[in-house]
Design goal:
Structural class: alpha/beta
Strand content: 5-15%
Distance between the termini: 38 Å
Low-confidence stretches: 5-40, 45-52
Strand order of the largest sheet: 3-6-7-8-9
Number of domains: 1
Radius of gyration: 21 Å
Mean pLDDT: 87
Order of helices and strands: HEEEHHEEEHHHHHEEHEHEEHE
Largest sheet: 5 strands, mixed
């Protein structure tokens, strides 16, 4: 494994936020390196002389391009809906650095035209343990009904386990108990798997060429509305805390996540979170109050702006920047819209209990930039003073895969 320090990951003094800010134009290390070609399956760390190599900084800044929202077969939805079990995070990292990805028959399924400069695999927190128990070839759980159905690609099984997570519960047959916590088999397995997430990110880190981040997706959902409160969490360097738990064990609370980030990430640890898909938020993500509806406090606002300096506004599940008719008349905001403006008379959910998604003005980041000024006038802190990124949210381990010709 390549050893790295907090100052040598991309360049001395660079932070995760600096890497991503302004659509990934960061104050990173010196002249752009040559793009790596297609290589074998060895991690970059096996080929590199060490992460403490001297990396020069460019005072004029360089633009780097990467993907900070990628799922492998360690994500329940990716695996259930067709990402082969063998496509673990290492496959996603190899694909991101320029290697081809193969199908089950060994044929090339895809390859990037140019390798990425940086990336992170952001597998879901809520079901990390369940997926590992079900995929373990030597474990006893592959014959559990839920595992058999998930491996067969059952949409019904996926929505059953997802429905349980919305209630902050787990599958009792697979996990030993419906109650999440340190004694739950699925939570224990997630904690066991977390160091492996770190090891895979570290293994493919190549100083000055390909930067990787230890990361996960905090898959919180608003308990009342069903709106998404998802955000990806990124750690810089090797100082990463032990597994703290999943959103379903923390009442799906973003505020609890920020609190944990402050409590657990100390010393040389450096962490940020990047919210995404506010277009699925049903008004909750960028509202002028806490996620539970309570008023902002200075303490929570200070923690929020410090831990979430960025927001993801474009990806495969649509545009979260703006929408024509939602406090804007900009016709360009019709780009990549998935949902119509909310109808106050519409039913809150469909027959399956899933929310009938629509867009509220507070789902759009442009509106939040204006709301932030109002919050600042009242509280002295602007929680929505964001830098912005775009990512793929790829669920086939194919980081950076976009259709550049016909978009």
């Amino acid at each position: 494994m390549t050893t790295r320090s907090a100052q040598s990951r991309i360049g001395a003094g660079a932070t995760v936020a600096a890497v991503c800010l302004a659509l990934l134009a960061a104050a990173c290390a010196g002249p752009a390196p040559e793009a790596p070609g297609v290589r074998d399956d060895e991690p970059a760390g096996a080929e590199t002389g060490g992460a403490t190599a001297s990396l020069r900084r460019n005072p004029l800044r360089n633009a780097w391009f990467g993907d900070l929202h990628v799922h492998s077969s360690w994500s329940l939805d990716a695996w259930t809906f067709g990402d082969p079990m063998q496509n673990d995070p290492s496959v996603a990292y190899r694909y991101g650095r320029g290697d081809p990805i193969l199908d089950a028959d060994g044929n090339v399924r895809g390859q990037l035209a140019a390798p990425l400069d940086f990336m992170a695999v952001t597998d879901h927190d809520n079901w990390l343990g369940e997926v590992q128990l079900c995929q373990d070839p030597e474990g006893p759980d592959r014959d559990v009904a839920m595992c058999r159905e998930l491996e067969a690609g059952s949409v019904q099984a996926f929505f059953r386990i997802r429905s349980l997570s919305l209630q902050s519960r787990r599958d009792p047959e697979l996990c030993g108990s419906a109650e999440p916590g340190p004694d739950n088999r699925c939570d224990r397995r997630a904690a066991h798997q977390w160091p492996m997430v770190q090891e895979m990110a570290d293994a493919y880190y190549e100083p000055g060429v390909f930067t990787t981040f230890t990361a996960f997706e905090y898959s919180a959902v608003h308990p009342a509305s069903g709106g998404w409160l998802h955000r990806n969490v990124f750690f810089r360097g090797e100082d990463v805390p032990t597994w703290g738990g999943a959103a379903l064990g923390w009442s799906h609370s973003p505020e609890r996540l920020w609190e944990w980030m402050d409590e657990a990430c100390t010393g040389d640890c450096d962490v940020i979170a990047i919210p995404h898909n506010t277009n699925y938020g049903l008004g909750a993500v960028l509202a002028p109050n806490n996620s539970d509806g309570t008023p902002f406090t200075p303490e929570i606002l200070e923690r929020r702006i410090r831990r979430e300096p960025l927001i993801e506004i474009h990806q495969v599940k649509g545009n979260s920047e703006c929408a024509t008719g939602l406090l804007t008349s900009d016709e360009e905001c019709n780009f990549e819209q998935l949902f119509k403006p909310c109808d106050p008379d519409a039913p809150p959910a469909d027959a399956g209990g899933r929310p009938a998604f629509c867009n509220d003005p507070s789902d759009m980041v442009r509106n939040a930039l204006k709301t932030g000024l109002e919050v600042e006038a009242e509280h002295g802190i602007n929680p929505f003073k964001y830098g912005v990124i775009g990512s793929t949210d790829a669920h086939r381990s194919m980081s950076g895969s976009t259709d550049e010709e016909t978009w």
